[in-house]
Structures are given as structure tokens and as C-alpha cells.
Amino acid sequence: MKRTFIYFCLLWIPWMAQAHPGVLLSDQVRHTPEDQKVYETVMEVLLPLRSESMPVLIMKAAEAMLETPYVGGTLEQTPEMLTVSLAGTDCILLVEACVCMALTARKEDHSFEAFCDNLRQFRYRKGQAEGYAGRIHYTSEWIQQAESRDLAREISRSVSGTRLDQVFSYMSAHADRYPMLADNPQLTLQIAAVEKELSERKYYYIPKAKLEENLDKIQHGDMICFVSGTEGLDISHVAFAYESYICEHDCCPDGRGCPNGQRRLGFIHASSKEEKVVVDDMTLAGYVNSTQSCKGIRIVRFL
Fold first, then answer.
1. How much helix, strand and coil, in percent to the nearest 5, is found in the chain?
2. Can you tell me the distance from the alpha carbon of 104 to that of 111, in angstroms, rounded to the nearest whole number?
3. 86 lies in which domain range?
4. Is the pLDDT score of 59 beyond 50?
5. How far apart are CA 299 and CA 154, in angstroms?
């Protein structure tokens, strides 16, 4: 994956938004009729399974989103408000959408409005859509907010215990790449203040060299965060771990739970290279080891 696309996928580096401007709900949510149709289609899959665990629901949602076109820059519209992008997605928006649809399916209120509220709680600091600086731009903070709500737990430290020396500065250092920041030094200072606070926290990861020996600790449906080697940037791409089994004896549909089954750990993601949501042809270890800009991974498990 080209570095340009990798940066864009997670931090939403702005391009000119190519999505339809959409319509607004009464509480100021930007979406299109196509987005709502995708939501309804996925919920038809999830609702009969609503008593299942979050990882099961999340992966059913992700599978229902396969072939969805990759579209970048959908959040970079003015005025700033919650923007739903289900008919076209990028890597972090796919993760957000699947988690929030799974969460909505487990609640009594399954409406599109309820989904939008769940999405707002993940995407904006303290769930308040209060301007561009209030939107969570770094995945590390996104994880921390999910953990504070007891919806997820990062397990990177328990898996490898390897400290990650992480400094956040990418957005403020490259303000000229962000239309909202380019001519707004005050807003850039607000982003820099967030970066400073994030830089003071402790982080852990699984380095490339330790990945193979820890693959068995990664579960189907875990959020995989690919650690960036770019200065000031925490995560370059996100995906869901996708576990499958090959049964050479053909005695069961997918080899799952079969003593003859051989486990394959891959990942499902919105791929800029494939221009759609796919189960990648590469294994997780193969992708990490072949991507020079990736230092390793962090793992988040949804509860």
C-alpha cells in the first residue's frame, strides 16, 4: 500500500470530498439515502444474532460490508458535523461503522438515529460533535475513549510487553496538508495541545520480530492497528483480524473446530489498493513483514 494512501486512511488527510453532500437529520448528521440503505441491509444480518458476542457481530457486519467501495475524504466537509459514510468507506470508518452497528444491534433501539449516536460517541471527544478540534484524529485517542467507556480493551501490553516510544506531531507539523488547519494557526495550536497530551501517555505494541510467536493470541474480530514508522504518526492503517481454517480432509465447511483444520490468520479491511473492502490475500504476518513502513501492530479487543 502506498504511503500516501496509508496516511490518508487513518488520519483522514483531506482530499476534496467526492461523496454526495448528503442530507441532514434533525440533529445535524450528514448522510445519503445510500448510507441509510447500507445500514438497513447490515442490520438485517445482525438483528437475528443480537445475543452473540461483540466480536461475532462485528465480523458479521464486516463481512456484510465486503465489496463496499473505498472512498477517502468523506469527513472533510464543512460545516463540521457527524458524517456517516457507509456506501463508501476507508479503513477507520469501516472499523467504526462495524463496531457501532454491532453495538446498536445489541440495544433495544435499532434505529439509524441510534446508530448515529453511537458513532458520535466513538468519533468525537466525550461524544460531543464540537468542531474540527473536537473530532478524534489519532487512533490512539480513539482507542482510549473506547476503553474509558468499557467497550474495548487494548491487549498489546499483555501480549508482548514491549514499550512503544510514541510522539504525536504529524497533524500540526503538516498543517498545510489539512485545509481546516492550513490557514488557521489557532486551530492548529488546539491540535498541537491534543498531540502533547497524547505524547505523555504510555503505549505498547508487538514488534515485527515478535509477531509470529504471538499470532495465537490474536482472535477473530480483534482490531489490528498497524504501527507507523513515520515521525509523529501513531497508526498508519487499521483492520479486523480474520481467522479462517483450511481443512484438507473436506470434513467440515471451514475447518473451524476441526482437528484437521489449519488456522490462517488474515485480515479484513478497506483497501485503497483494491479500492474496496476485502479479505486480504496476504496473511497478517505476511503483510506486516513485507511493509517496510510498519513497525509492528497493536491489538484492540471489543467487549
1. 40, 20, 35
2. 8
3. 3-302
4. yes
5. 6
| Residue found by looking up cell 511493509 in the block | 291
* Band (5; pLDDT cuts 50, 70, 90): very low
Supply the CATH number for residue 70's domain: 1.10.3670.10
Residue 245: what pLDDT? 83
Contacts of 240 (CB under 8 A, 6+ apart): 58, 59, 62, 95, 98, 221, 222, 223, 224, 267, 268, 269
Let me know: does 50 contact 110? Beta carbons within 8 Å: no
pTM assigned to the model:
0.89
Residue 261 C-alpha cell reads as: 483444520
Number of domains composing the chain: 1
Alpha-carbon gap, residue 28 to 116, rounded angstroms: 10
- Grid coordinates representing 269 are 479491511
* pLDDT, tens digit (0-9, with 9 covering 90-100), for 149-191: 999 999 999 999 999 999 999 999 999 999 999 999 999 999 9
Helices (H), the chain: 3-11, 33-46, 54-64, 91-105, 112-123, 139-148, 156-160, 170-173, 179-182, 185-199, 208-211, 284-290
Q: Find how far residue 223's CA is from the centre of its chain.
A: 7
Q: How many CA atoms lie within 13 A of 87 on its CB side?
A: 14
CB-count burial class (<10 Å; 0-12, 13-18, 19+) for 59: buried
Torsional class of 109: left (φ above 0), alpha (ψ -120 to 50), beta (otherwise): beta
CA atoms in the 13 A half-sphere facing the CB of 91:
30
**Are the beta carbons of 242 and 223 closer than 8 angstroms?**
no
Average pLDDT estimate for 203-221? 97
